[in-house]
Design brief:
By secondary structure, the chain is of the alpha/beta class. The chain is built from 19 helices and 26 strands. The chain folds into three domains: 282 residues, 4-Layer Sandwich (Metallo-beta-lactamase, Chain A), CATH 3.60.15.10; 153 residues, Rossmann fold; 103 residues, Ubiquitin-like (UB roll). It is globular.
């Protein structure tokens, strides 16, 4: 019996065949396939970096870089318009130094929608970096229209552009990217979900929740909720209307107001709106057609968008409704609606020129109804106000304020921002698209909903938000800022040039021209040329004194045997500048031109 028990015990303690656990299988496979690391180790090694290059702490020029390992993905590349002190500047785009320094790592540009503040900088990016661009049909149509304006874009291959549809999935580099529809003040707007090794990163783009959109295409709320069930790592969400309580009204409600105003107007109707708001254009055209009016479109950008939208099927217009401006001028005023650019009071826009009687083909007449179907972008308030005043002076009936109901924002208000946060339920949250106060208000909303304060990041352009396994922190900074576009010049105008332009605009210029020999003896001059400073014929004594000061400086240099040109120019500038400030309290730009014979 004892022997049998011993035998049983020995059998029990015999070594059993080794179970092939998943960890051991993974290890063996790793050894076979060049020592490939298990997923947990890969996660520990991978870092995801979020780098805003524009759109934070400001309105416009939105651009975001997302680094996953060695790959870089860009979301949007927009522009903004110059501030008042940026004299002569046409547009402002993000500083793309970091992108160009790492251009071999850039895999794609993912575009959320076709507004200028999201696609306006792309021609300048694609000039030097030919990289795939993913966007919806209208977005790519508007982008290609913009590219036609630039000579360097003629040779961009068509295969770089990848048309996507909402609720589609695409493999971009090593990432799976999902697109979902959102409502905005332009058709075909989408948000993005990037499936990284650390988790899902969601960028909403510009959005609102419109329950009655003009085109019937509602936000993909089910897809957003589905993504929220998958433990979203990071949410980046539009903050533009974070200060505004409640909900943003539906775009379709503007159509009711437009129809009401049209029905009461007896004379000509002029409507200024954003050219990219295709749904607004559709409602204006439908309202005009309903009361038997013809529609003329004025303004280059407005004509471009109308043509592209009609070609792609986003704008539906009967052939007999649209007419050119020359034909509109021959019709009775009661039979015409004019859609124009200039809702932001831009100096060269069609509406602004009409309000000042400077347009070649149109002028505002007493009895005209002028509808400004937009709210001023921050910074444009003065220009819009000036245009409205001029329109009233011409005898027009101007409809423009927010209470009139002629505009609906494309951005969600506080309740919609809360809804997005509740649907997504992210671990980390980063407000985007807005001035600093907008970002802070969005942060406070997130805290109300239970997102931990330490998991919310208020970022600045250029800062790096580094995500790793179980951790997120702001870690470092890259070059960021603005690049000024002046004509064909890209970034060749900086702070010094702008300072000089400001001085020239305020105090003018004084030029001292003199001819000397090698011994610094004066052979001709000094001649004094002034522009924008004083009227020379009425300031002869002042100009004569400047001439004498310059001559005395050169005589002193001759006596001291100082023939270094830079020293002579600086001395003339200092002496003349001091005298002119003492006499006039002005600081003109002073240039010295010395010629030696």
């Amino acid at each position: 019996m004892a022997e049998k028990k011993t035998e049983k015990i020995e059998k029990k303690t015999e070594k059993k065949p080794e179970k092939k656990t998943s960890a051991k299988i993974t290890k063996k496979l790793s050894e076979k396939i060049g020592k490939k690391k298990p997923d947990k180790e890969i996660k520990k090694d991978i870092k995801v970096k979020i780098i805003p290059l524009g759109g934070l702490g400001e309105i416009g020029k939105n651009m975001m870089a997302i680094e996953v390992g060695e790959e870089i993905f860009i979301i949007d590349c927009g522009l903004s318009f110059p501030e008042e002190d940026m004299l002569g500047i046409d547009i402002v785009i993000p500083d793309m130094t970091y992108i160009f320094q790492n251009k071999d790592r850039v895999k794609a540009v993912l575009v959320t929608h076709g507004h200028e503040d999201h696609i306006g900088g792309l021609p300048y990016l694609l000039r030097d970096l030919r990289v795939p661009v993913y966007g919806t049909r209208l977005t790519l149509g508007l982008l290609k229209g913009k590219l036609k304006e630039h000579v360097w874009a003629n040779d961009i291959p068509e295969e770089l552009f990848h048309e996507i549809a909402p609720l589609s999935k695409h493999q971009v580099g090593s990432l799976k990217v999902e697109f979902f529809r959102v409502n905005h003040s332009i058709a075909d707007a989408v948000g993005l979900a990037l499936h990284t090794p650390l988790g899902i990163i969601i960028h909403t783009g510009d959005f609102k929740f419109d329950q009655t959109p003009v085109d019937g295409e509602r936000v993909d709320i089910h897809k957003i909720a589905e993504l929220g069930q998958k433990n979203v790592l990071l949410l980046m969400s539009d903050s533009t209307n974070a200060e505004r309580p409640g909900y943003t009204k539906s775009e379709s409600s503007v159509g009711d107001t437009i129809r009401d105003i049209f029905s009461k107007s007896k004379e000509r109707i002029i409507v200024a709106t954003f050219s990219s708001n295709v749904h607004r254009l559709q409602q204006i055209i439908d309202a005009a057609a309903a009361i038997g009016r013809k529609v003329a479109v004025v303004g280059r950008s407005m004509n471009n968008v109308v043509d592209i939208s009609m070609e792609l099927g986003y704008l539906k217009v009967d052939d007999n409704v649209l007419i050119d401006i020359d034909k509109a001028n021959r019709l009775e005023n009661s039979k015409v609606v004019i859609i124009t650019t200039g809702s932001q009071g831009e100096p060269m826009s069609a509406l602004t020129r009409m309000s000042m009687n400077m347009h070649k083909k149109l002028s505002v007449m007493p009895g005209d109804t002028v509808m400004i179907s937009a709210t001023p972008v921050p910074g444009n308030e003065k220009m819009v106000s000036r245009t409205i005043n001029n329109l009233f002076k011409e005898g027009a009936n101007v409809v423009y304020d927010r209470q009139s109901g002629v505009h609906a924002s494309g951005h969600g208000s506080q309740e919609e921002l809360k809804l997005m946060l509740n649907l997504i339920r992210p671990k980390y949250f980063m407000p985007v698209h807005g001035e600093y106060r907008h970002l802070m208000h969005h942060k406070m909303l997130a805290e109300e909903l239970g997102i931990l304060k330490e998991n919310i990041f208020i970022m600045e352009n250029g800062q790096i938000l580094e995500l790793s396994e179980g951790k997120a922190e702001i870690n470092g900074k890259v070059t960021a800022g603005q690049t000024l576009i002046d004509g064909l010049g890209i970034g060749d105008v900086g702070n010094i040039v702008l300072r000089d332009r400001k001085l020239l605009s305020e105090d003018g210029i004084v030029i001292v021209v003199v001819t000397i020999d090698s011994e610094v003896n004066i052979l001709a001059g000094p001649e004094i040329v002034s522009r924008g400073f004083v009227y020379v014929r009425e300031s002869e004594e002042l100009i004569e004194n400047v001439r004498n000061i310059a001559a005395n400086v050169l005589e002193k240099c001759a006596k001291d045997k100082n023939s270094e040109w830079s020293a002579m120019k600086n001395m003339i500038k200092q002496e003349v500048g001091s005298y002119l400030y003492e006499q006039t309290r002005r600081k003109p730009v002073i240039l010295s031109i010395i010629m030696e014979i």
